[in-house]
Every structure is written in C-alpha cells, then in structure tokens.
Give the backbone structure.
Amino acid sequence: MISFTIPGLSDKKASDVADLLQKQLSTYNDLHLTLKHVHWNVVGPNFIGVHEMIDPQVELVRGYADEVAERIATLGKSPKGTPGAIIKDRTWDDYSVERDTVQAHLAALDLVYNGVIEDTRKSIEKLEDLDLVSQDLLIAHAGELEKFQWFVRAHLESAGGQLTHEGQSTEKGAADKARRKSA
C-alpha cells in the first residue's frame, strides 16, 4: 500500500514500478552473495587475479541493491532485503558450483550474468511506459553488468572468439565443460 509517492506519478504506476524494482533488488542481493561465494571458492591457476576481480563487482552490485531499495522507498513502498524476499522473488535456481577451478566458476558465472542481464533488460523495457527515472537507473546498472560479464568471458574465450562452455544451459554443465577444456 502506498500512502505517498513521487509528484507526477500515479499511485498505481508507483506501485507497479516498486514491485518491478523489488524483483531487481532481490536479483542484486542474490548476485552479490553469489559473487562472494565464487570469491571464496575459486581455486587453481589465476586464482588471485579472479579472486581480486570479483570483489569490486560485489561492491558495485551491493551499491545497485542500495540504489534500487532507496528508489522503492522514494516511490512510497517498503523495500524488502531479507533472505525470504530473495527466495520469494527468485525465478532462478541457487548457484550450484562449490569449491572449483577458476574456469569452472567463471563459466557458471557467465550463465548467471546471462540471466541477470536478460532480466534487467526486460525490466528496462517495462519501465519505458512507467517511470523513466527508474528506467535510467537500471540502464546504468545494465551497462556495468555487461562490462562485468565481458571481464568474466575474457577468461573463457579462445583466440577464435568461442567460449569454453559454449552450448551449455546449466551452471554445472558450463563448469564441467570449461573444466574439461582447461585440463
């Protein structure tokens, strides 16, 4: 229930935008926890480079979560940042790779970024007719998320432009294929 919202935005539109942003908040909270999990569980050659590459991504995604939560509050709703909210809003499976090689984690993480970026772009499209300020916020986030995915893919790409885990649709499958190719 909204008791106030931004001037010039109807209560209905504000509620719709806040609901859409709540799903984005849960996505970002899940992503920064997943990135931290990778940071803690990556092993093997190039460990330190990947370990250190992940932390700035964690911090930026945490910042995105904060920006989205503050936008929800500005719209007049209460942002939910609890584990239960993540689970309620989740349309994806929990990250499935535990302690594993750099290649395995990065291949799985590439698929995570695929999902997050695809969902973010869908939200951007939906916001076109609802709230351009919220849309602009997500557009900025999408650009950085796409850059992060490029960083990840640079470790997985052959000189010919093929990804080590090409054709895989699950994190485990991507991790297994990347691990085999790097062995």
In short: The chain has a mean pLDDT of 94. The longest helix spans residues 11-41.
